[in-house]
Amino acid sequence: MEPWIIVLISMIGLAFLALLFTFVPVTLWISAVAANVKVGILTLVGMRLRRVTPSRIVNPQIKAVKAGLNINISNLEAHYLAGGDVDRVINALIAAQRANISLEFERAAAIDLAGRDVLEAVQMSVNPKVIETPPITAVAKNGIEVIARAKVTVRANIDRLIGGAGEPTVVARVGEGIVTTIGSSSSHEEVLENPDNISKIVLEKGLEAGTAFEILSIDIGDIDIGRNIGAQLQTDQAEADKRIAQAKAEERRAMAVASEQEMRAQVQEMRAKVVEAEAQVPLAISAALREGKIGVMDYYNMMNVVSDTTMRNSIAGSDENQQPGYSND
Known about the structure:
Elements: H1 3-23, H2 26-34, H3 41-49, H4 54-66, H5 73-81, H6 86-98, H7 105-113, H8 118-126, E1 129-132, E2 136-139, E3 144-156, H9 167-183, H10 188-193, H11 196-203, E4 213-228, H12 229-291, H13 296-321
Antiparallel strand pairs: 1-3, 2-3, 3-4
Helix pairs in contact: 4-5, 4-6, 6-7, 6-8, 9-11
């Protein structure tokens, strides 16, 4: 056989072996067999055809077998195809087994697919987590503002992880309980003297209902005194009453000005009518003289009366202006 034919056959064989080891994870199969994990070559090839990374399934299976867990490799592949994290689920099951927590693969997979970190939940069941609330502002009955910060120790409840509320709900409920408790206190001094009463009252409210956690304790870490909200509200109310009174006074003044202007208009109208009537008097006297209803002597007697009245008015006016101790002589 020609040498070049031997070289060609060797190259084709090497290429075939390279392709075979690339498509068929022989090394991974050997590791599984060494770990006493029953998985066949055809199963690994089928994973390749289903676009599943074999190492993402086989390595967690090896870990589960070494931990003493009896899990079907088909379930792991189904969870992978559903978009779950197989390695995290296996780690959570191992941690739950070591902590003597009852957790099955189906439930752990459901928790993982629901978007929860199942491993963190198991770890939180063993080692409770401390949640610090932001500053919570409340006002006591005496109007003094109280600012409190609390530390909530919670433990994950595996049975309520699916459908249970998360940490924001726990923080909101604890804040609501603190605000209610401080608001029902008679004074801020009572809150400062007995901050543990807040924890007791809030814990008795059953805030963990419907959440994925079990509240172990609520500790008030810090309490500060803020503004005097009562005095500020009274000041604002007094300022508002003052503005209302000023507005009403301005309204009354405007009504008085309008009434005065109306009265002046009426007086001017009456004066105009008097002047008009006085202008008609000489015409009426002339008409009466022409018609013979009054005589000349009657007219002169009337003028004498008018002159006498004018004189008397003049004298009366000079008497009013005369100073004491002086006479008109």
